[in-house]
């Protein structure tokens, strides 16, 4: 007779990065008051798990930026619930929300938002002077800024100022800045909107590599279909309504005709 071996107690493996789990329940958003009050997001519910690469796509005015800003804790004027881990964002004070945002989120915008009078390295290490994390003191910060520039293929541009950089290079600096505090999730609003097609794909390749190699969670708003198709999940908005939320086989830049991405970074 076969005897069953006694079961070994299963050991829970500790994951290196705690799971980010943004969940949104019945989210609506209005602008204006009285007669002029218009609803720009309607009853949106969704969750984003740790390590996902999500694009949010839709025509102009469909509510993409509004949704991203609410998820990223930049806009707290809405109805519904937004959670990150155990935190309900609407229950946090402004100070708690801004601390959470500084520690856990990175942001990349269409217009780069770099300070022209600072060098690339200084633009990246600047957040350390506001003490978002106790370990990011200024001396180590310069070294970290250099490492991050190396990572995005701009190791030789530490001392250059934004006016001396191309659009794609500026966006790489902005990505390095977003990575400075080791965020668990990066929100990007039209990160390729000011770039030509090839440069835009190079930037998306950096995001794909960050997602694949470091399991970084990424949420990218775009109105460009070919950019959206580089993510592994596509959320589609129409007039503030979530009309599709589907898994996607991510397109690689070389499939879109960009064979050499010219990224000498370590990603
Ligand atoms: N501050 C505001 N006050 C009033 N209405 C606003 C404001 N910001 C956005 N809207 C309106 O909300 C709707 C959604 O705007 P949102 O910027 O989220 O759309 P979007 O999909 O990101 O558009 P785009 O691709 O053009 O950036 C639009 O109709 C816009 O006019």
Q: Total helix count?
A: 7
Strand segment count: 10
Mean pLDDT: 87
- How is the main sheet built? 6 strands, mixed
> Which percent band covers the strand fraction?
15-25%
For CATH, the homologous superfamily of the domain at 21-110 and 184-256 is named as P-loop containing nucleotide triphosphate hydrolases
Distance between the termini: 56 Å
Shape: globular
Rounded Rg: 20 Å
Bound small molecules, by name, code or SMILES, are: adenosine-5'-triphosphate
Stretches where pLDDT falls below 50 for ≥5 residues? none
Structural class: alpha/beta
Organism: Persicimonas caeni
GO molecular function, one term: transmembrane transporter activity
Protein name: ABC transporter ATP-binding protein
Keywords: ATP-binding, Nucleotide-binding, Transport
Entry keywords:
ABC_transporter-like_ATP-bd; transport; ABC_transporter-like_CS; four-stranded antiparallel β-sheet; 7 helices; six-stranded mixed β-sheet; binds adenosine-5'-triphosphate; alpha/beta; Rossmann fold; 267 residues; single chain; ATP binding
């Amino acid at each position: 007779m076969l005897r069953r071996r006694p079961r070994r107690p299963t050991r829970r493996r500790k994951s290196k990065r705690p799971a980010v789990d943004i969940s949104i329940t019945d989210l609506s958003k209005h602008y204006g008051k009285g007669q002029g009050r218009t609803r720009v997001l309607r009853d949106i519910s969704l969750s984003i798990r740790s390590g996902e690469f999500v694009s949010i796509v839709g025509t102009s005015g469909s509510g993409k930026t509004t949704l991203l800003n609410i998820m990223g804790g930049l806009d707290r004027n809405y109805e519904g619930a937004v959670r990150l881990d155990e935190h309900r964002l609407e229950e946090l004070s402004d100070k708690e929300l801004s601390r959470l945002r500084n520690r856990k989120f990175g942001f990349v915008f269409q217009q780069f938002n770099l300070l022209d009078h600072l060098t690339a390295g200084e633009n990246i290490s600047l957040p350390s002077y506001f003490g978002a994390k106790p370990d990011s003191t200024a001396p180590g910060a310069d070294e970290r800024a250099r490492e991050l520039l190396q990572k995005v293929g701009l190791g030789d541009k530490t001392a250059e100022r934004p006016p001396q950089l191309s659009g794609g290079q500026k966006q790489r600096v902005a990505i390095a800045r977003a990575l400075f505090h080791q965020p668990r999730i990066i929100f990007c609003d039209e990160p390729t909107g000011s770039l030509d097609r090839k440069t835009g794909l190079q930037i998306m390749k950096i995001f794909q590599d960050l997602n694949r190699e470091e399991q970084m969670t990424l949420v990218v708003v775009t109105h460009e279909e070919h950019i959206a198709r580089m993510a592994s999940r596509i959320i589609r908005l129409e007039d503030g309504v979530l009309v599709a939320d589907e898994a996607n086989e991510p397109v690689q830049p070389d499939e879109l005709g960009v064979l050499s991405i010219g990224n000498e970074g370590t990603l």
